[in-house]
Design brief:
single chain, alpha/beta, Rossmann fold, 49% helix
């Protein structure tokens, strides 16, 4: 039997790269995708994985990714991780920016997962990791567009988890808090004595993710304290909106 195959979108940095490393260590044949080939090619060679320069937010990019996976004849791990920033504060929102953020952070994952679902169903133990954000579980006036895209992704991931379980596919939804990556360095938070304690590194986040995966999937917050505002807003929405939004 061939080695398990893992696809990690947005796999050239941050959480995606951390997961790709971990799956490679577990003996998987790993495909990492990213838009920029300059960083991707030497990184893939260093890790001993397949690197594919493709934009998951476009139909052409998704077609290229699906074709690369089909060459290997199987898919056992799908990590929906590709994402973009572009958060806007208050009412500073325009339709075009919102469309771009939602296309990358939400629609692309729905489309790619649907395209590859038949291969996942053929796996003896398929697992899907949906990397969202804690900002998808509670409201923040400082990141309306990004938060909306992640709220859609988290909601979809939760529903997918329930539906996929009936088909024997395990889904893990990840809601990270501030994680230091190249996209989100979190310099301001790290300079604050107390807020800096809530920022974690990629290694800790990946450890939390894989621990949940190994327990059979479900949902995980990393840092776990960011589950508190989600629960607070659900139970006391008026109080939360008054003091925290």
């Amino acid at each position: 039997m061939s080695r398990p195959v893992a696809l990690v979108t947005g796999g050239s940095s941050g959480i995606g790269l951390g997961i790709a490393r971990r799956l490679s260590e577990r003996g998987c044949e790993v495909i990492i995708t990213a838009r920029g080939e300059d960083r991707l090619r030497p990184l893939a060679e260093q890790l001993g994985v397949i690197g594919l320069a493709a934009d998951v937010s476009t139909e052409r990019g998704r077609a290229a990714i699906a074709a690369e996976v089909r060459k290997l004849g199987r898919l056992d791990w799908l990590v929906d991780n590709a994402g973009t920033g572009g958060g806007t504060a208050g009412l500073d929102v325009d339709v075009e920016r919102a469309r771009r953020v939602l296309e990358t952070n939400f629609y692309s994952h729905v489309a790619l997962t649907e395209e590859l679902w038949p291969l996942l169903r053929e796996s003896p133990r398929a697992r899907v990791i949906v990397v969202s954000s804690s900002l998808g579980t509670y409201s923040s006036s400082g990141s309306i567009t990004y938060g909306a895209s992640k709220a859609a992704l988290t909601s979809w991931g939760r529903a997918l988890s329930v539906a996929a379980r009936r088909q024997g596919i395990e889904v893990t939804v990840v809601n990270p808090g501030p994680v230091v990556t190249t996209t989100f360095p979190h310099h301001e938070l790290l300079q604050d004595r107390w807020k800096g304690k809530l920022v974690i590194d990629v290694e800790r986040c990946v450890n939390d993710i894989m621990r949940r995966v190994d327990r059979g999937g479900g949902e995980v917050w990393s840092h776990p304290l960011f589950r508190v505002p989600a629960v607070l807003q659900a139970l006391l929405p008026g109080t939360y909106d008054r003091f925290f939004v």
